[in-house]
Amino acid sequence: MASIFGFRSRDPARDRQTDVARLDRLARLFEQIAAEIDAEKTGLEARYRKEATNAAFLVEAMENGSASDRRSSEVDALTQSILNTERRIAALSRQGGAMRELRHSLDMVFDENAATDSAATVRPARQQGAGRG
To answer: pTM of the entire structure?
Structure first.
C-alpha cells in the first residue's frame, strides 16, 4: 500500500511551462486555420468581383442589343455562381469570427491560469503567517 507521504507534486513552474507550451500550440493552430479561412475568402472575393463585373457587362450588352438573348443562360449561370459565392463568403466570415472568438477564449484561459498560479503562490505564504498583523 502506498503511503500518502510518498506523493510528490510537480514544481508549479514546470506545470506552468507545460500549460504555456500547450496553449501556444493551440493558439498557433487557431491562427493557422484563421489564415486558411482568410486566404480562401480573399480568393473568393476576387472571383466574386470578376463574376459580378462579367454579369453586369453581359446584362448591359443584352439590353443594348449587342449580345443575343441566347446568352441569358450565361447570365443565369453567373447569377447562380454569384449567389453561391456570397453564401460561401458569409460562411467563411462566420468561421473567421469563430476562430477569433476561440483565440480570445484561449487568451482568457491563459490569463485565468496565470492569475490562479499567482494566487497559489501567495496563498501558502499567508497560511504560514505572513501578512498577519
So the answer is: 0.69
Record the cell numbers describing residue 63, joined without a space.
439590353
Q: Could you give the CA distance from residue 56 to residue 79 in angstroms, rounded to a whole number?
A: 10
pLDDT, position 113: 67
Whether residue 26 contacts residue 113, with contact meaning beta carbons closer than 8 Å, is answered with no
Yes or no: say if 56 and 78 are a contact pair by the CB < 8 Å rule.
Answer: no
User: CA 72, CA 58: separation in Å to the nearest integer?
Assistant: 9
| Residue spans of the chain under pLDDT 70 | 1-4, 113-114, 116-133
Look up residue 34 and give its three cell numbers. Answer: 484563421
Q: 117: Cβ–Cβ under 8 A, 6 or more apart, which residues?
A: 12, 16
Task: Please state, in angstroms and rounded to a whole number, the distance separating the CA atoms of residues 15 and 60.
Answer: 67
Dmax (CA) of the chain: 95
Length of the chain: 133
What cell does 70 get? Answer: 441566347
In whole angstroms, give the CA distance from residue 32 to residue 109. 19
